[in-house]
């Protein structure tokens, strides 16, 4: 509940920049209206961001009867941000300008079994070097690198505490990466990256409490509650994939049984298919991506096995989302990540129907369920925003002690 | 995210009064430190509360080297608050002074089948009359009545939208009560009442994110997140009792199957007992209270059937709480309501062990699980605080337009 004035100053600076990035050009008056900050505070923060060259003055707009209002916009070329999505089956790296446009992209598949920390670090370092070279950016302009890794992470120490799919325990990931990458590094996990991406650029923009359900190899839920991310006391909130849906059900690599993930993560979907038809040509043993792709094509072709598997999977996803709806009563549920993207609208329709069957009527009626509208990898985008947040925080630390640069924390 | 300045003013006034009630006497300086409000804002709010005679000046304390600091304390006799707990098997009504001490209490059992709205309203009205008479309070000093009813409620309209245990749908409860009770009425549900009671006076005082798990006839979870109550978009968050724990499991009156409540609500516990030993003398058919009481005595006597039933029930509770721990990563889980109180420490020990088996290691290690330390009915206490909040809001509305009475919303 208690925050230092430096925390509040950083949060306000970030909030103002976020609105400028989302809606450029804009005026100080408009920013005051959308953030709830006083005009004086906004003017000070805008002045700071101008001085940092993160935004620029771009002219004036008429205001009804009053003085013309100065307009500001994000200075897209004022710096670059890198987002890294380390997933179970691939590494994606994207380089963004300050308007969060993608300037360069690198993708590498992760071969099964090649997921030791030093192997992953090597892949990431190579891909980061590749996007910087590809974009033709001077290294000095890279403000930071946000790194997303599945499982539980300690943001302060940069340690990947527990990644159940790889059985990583307490891997000092940022320390290992820092041996190869000279830019400031910021660690978090894909649940929170996706949630922030939806809040900034996706379905959750301007909406209330939102749950972003990630459907990939692992699954989880990013919780955007009360206007911010709900992280929990040790930054591990959102482990929806490891909530029990079927007591004494399928064994999970986390040690529990009947976890949501064992039915709706990509390996769980493969098992759903195998249980329905072990000989199905849709099944590509050892290749999740190919199997989910085959299911998507099967759906489009009306293949009855594909339809049955997706319906079966949607029943589990729907019962699990109904739990989120009953417990959290969100305004919005967003389906994100690669499995949701591949199975798309047909999956969404089945999931909606399954949520309706399992949820209480009132909270179900209050919740909208949609697919993520973000066309690129939302994890890279969210990870890049963590790097931006980190850059603003370090600006605050550098300038915090200098007289004349303090920003009023009042609102 | 956006609040009007009147909302902020009311919230700040409430926050200051809450701290004075929790910690009397206290100084303006101390209040500024614990609330994060500026000293000037606190001084204004304290001035208002003094004028309303809700608090009084009680002397001075020395401050190291500076001027003596004026101390204020709650004016216990400055008003009375009534909390009403309408549960499935009883109605409890308590009358409090402004320090939230109980001055009078009325309890009535609700006979099975006698739960039509007009029957319940008659019982509540009689009990409210009884506590006012018993306390010898002038009616004019009753600032309000907080009413808790299970299920989903619309606070703004005073409608009990859905109470699954009674099959109530859209009952205009406050309207019906207002025909008998002349004091301001405020409706909410027991999940939120218990959560607020723990925040103000119980285990959650001064703690971070807390889940208050209510174990009664119905079950649910009050969510105290980010320093406030998480209500959800339609005020129905917390329906943990209607999250699926056993897909396709026991039928629930909500229409779903395998809900947590069907295994751990008092009727679910009776079913656990019946499945284990249909002839058990511990079983009092048609009487939940007597059965849970018999189980508690059986536990104390080492009765193997009682031990087995409580272990079985604790396994379900623990798996359900593990879901909350994995999803929300709270600092604290509090077991509340009458079933938790009756089964006490032996239940707690079994629940802790079951949560440990089902939860992820990291969030489990970060969570403390305790019994509610509140000795009286926490629902009445929480409901009374909703009445207090309502009283402060109406003060704000009455004085809001008068010049010279505006309170700066800055913090």
TrEMBL record, chains A, B:
Protein's organism: Streptomyces sp. 900105755
InterPro entries from the UniProt entry: ATPase_NBD, ROK, ROK_cs, WH-like_DNA-bd_sf, WH_DNA-bd_sf
Protein's recorded name: ROK family transcriptional regulator
Domain of life: Bacteria
Family: Belongs to the ROK (NagC/XylR) family.
UniProt-listed Gene3D superfamilies: 3.30.420.40, Winged helix-like DNA-binding domain superfamily/Winged helix DNA-binding domain
Phylogenetic placement of the source organism: Bacteria, Bacillati, Actinomycetota, Actinomycetes, Kitasatosporales
